[in-house]
Amino acid sequence: MEIGVSVVICTFNGARLLPKTLRHLAQQQVREDIKWEVLIVDNASTDNSQRVIYDVWADSQTTVPLIILYQPQPGLTHARHMAMENATYDFVLFCDDDNWLAPDYVSTAYGLMTQNPSIGALGGRGELVFENKVPLWVRGHGLFANGPQAKESGSVPNNVVYGAGCVIRKTAYEKIVKAQFQPLLADRLGTHLSAGGDYELCYNLALAGYSIWYEEKLRFKHFMPNSRLSWEYTVRLIKQGAKSFESIVPYRIFLNKGARGQLTFYLCLVLIMASYALKWTRAFLSYLGCYWHKEERDFYFLKTISARAKISALFPHRALYANFQRIHVFDQHLRKVPSKQEEPMAQDAMAADFPEMYMPV
């Protein structure tokens, strides 16, 4: 596999967002000896995204090659898979169509991935940028890819980083594909706010023996248009995003908690449900305590919606256990696939809490 960086943008009807994202890419400060390209996967868009992409890239006067791929099958997971199959280089950087990468993002990611061959996925730090002033209930919830993903740079204990700004090692991805990796989640489907594909990919790379890393120096702005900040959109995002727990929580129990049998699975599941029930209780009491202060009241009301949605997603326990068994079988397949890496892969399956700072979207 040739060493270099393939920057990937998966987009659905992103004509409005893409111009500024592409201009930030064109302004990347990359050494001449670092090979890189830009791949854009049009995930069944119905607007003029492709025309916008060609025009903006031509105006930027950059010599970096840009390729547009069309994925007719809706779903962010399908778009990412197409990108991985077509990427020229081993380091595949996923930049959302509303991410503005810092000028040194590509070169910093290249250096980190080159120096640390055990890294399967590398995440950065996003900072939200809003069109207008937003209420507390938007700013105070970890619903979008932003903020630090660990206390410090290095391997993350919970084995996940968010997909925005994430760099995937293609040879690591090819290892899990060779082991017949079949994602349980389709992730974002057009206007449907399903989620979790980024976390699922990280968990599978960790199962394959790779480290999941966070780097504080990798910075990007995450633009939030007004259309994504309405009360209706936020509630829909919470409820539809929570549905991914039916697949994501079994990964957490298997990998982070080390459960392998039915008894330990259900013990972990009960403890997780109890933790969210406690969070709902605390949020509801706080909601009652500030009932006459609208912003604070709305903030805590969203927390009750979030906790209730996650608890509801955990009730179909038979489906969760079936996914847990599928993960166990896939783990066994992985152990039969010889690694392409000569370096020993870091095995980091430490027990970890379930952070609230980001729910995959």
From TrEMBL:
One of its GO terms (molecular function) is transferase activity. The keyword Membrane does not apply. Residues 6-175 form the Glycosyltransferase 2-like domain. The lineage of its organism: Bacteria, Pseudomonadati, Bacteroidota, Cytophagia, Cytophagales. It comes from the Bacteria. This is Glycosyltransferase. InterPro entries: Glyco_trans_2-like, Glycosyltransf_2, Nucleotide-diphossugar_trans. Keywords: Transferase.
